Amino acid sequence: MKLSSREAVPDGRMSLMEHLRELRNRLIKAILGLALGAIVGWILFPPIWDFITEPYTRIPPKHCLGGNCSLVVHGIFDGFFIHLKVALIFGAILSSPIWLYQLWAFVAPGLYRRERRWTYTFMAAAVPLFVLGGALAYLTMDKGLKIFIGLAPGDTPVLVGIQEYLGYAQAMLFIFGLTFELPLFVIMLNMMGVLSHQRLRKSRRLLIFGVFVFAAVATPSQDPFTMLALALPTIVLFEIAELIAFFHDRRKARRPDPYEGLSDDEASPLDLDAMDAELEKGDRAR
């Protein structure tokens, strides 16, 4: 039986061509998963579109044409492209376990056991944080719309294009979702020893200021309510990340240093254990 390139080499090392073939196979599987998800999204377009446009229906009726808050199609092909874009967005979300697994399966063999554990933790926390950010964006979308559409003089109707609204909704969902991932990156950097709690504590004021500046620039509507809706929860998440970094650094400081008392040319017990494990793995492979 012929072994795959990953199975043939115990430590996961491959040649450049093997890496390219592995990447090609992973990409094909990820694209197939995206295509299947997009087909489902195309079929389920009506309920998905009703869910996306529901915040728009909550704007003041006096600014809707005939009291009916509906979007406007400006071009002949807008309807098709909206179907396609919504189907792809839904497909990317629905097939996320597939393409995330393909990404993980391509990267994981080159990671150490400890790094793999961090990645598992990261992936387990990343999805709920993104969903939480997207849910908050969905709940606040109508507030920004009401502020700016409400500035129209008198009972002037506001005609919003279907492409324009979808771009706004898509930007809100992704910006909120990705921003909520930033504190998780801070925790991962602290776990890897790149960013200490002491440095986080010293940079707290600068970090809070940066969050407000980012929220003011990144939000599509850039109104005060949406800016605060993004900035305040993000600051709370950063405070939680700092607290986790504090306990992690304090626990790490209590651990004994395996290199203490060793000369420069003497191997530590951890290095010897790792070497023995690699030799044992090579013997089993033979």
From TrEMBL:
It is found in: Cell membrane; Membrane. One of its GO terms (biological process) is intracellular protein transmembrane transport. One of its GO terms (cellular component) is TAT protein transport complex. GO terms for molecular function: proton motive force dependent protein transmembrane transporter activity. The Tat system comprises two distinct complexes: a TatABC complex, containing multiple copies of TatA, TatB and TatC subunits, and a separate TatA complex, containing only TatA subunits. Substrates initially bind to the TatABC complex, which probably triggers association of the separate TatA complex to form the active translocon. PANTHER family: SEC-INDEPENDENT PROTEIN TRANSLOCASE PROTEIN TATC (PTHR30371), SEC-INDEPENDENT PROTEIN TRANSLOCASE PROTEIN TATC, CHLOROPLASTIC-RELATED (PTHR30371:SF0). Part of the twin-arginine translocation (Tat) system that transports large folded proteins containing a characteristic twin-arginine motif in their signal peptide across membranes. Together with TatB, TatC is part of a receptor directly interacting with Tat signal peptides. Belongs to the TatC family. This is Sec-independent protein translocase protein TatC. It comes from Actinomadura syzygii.
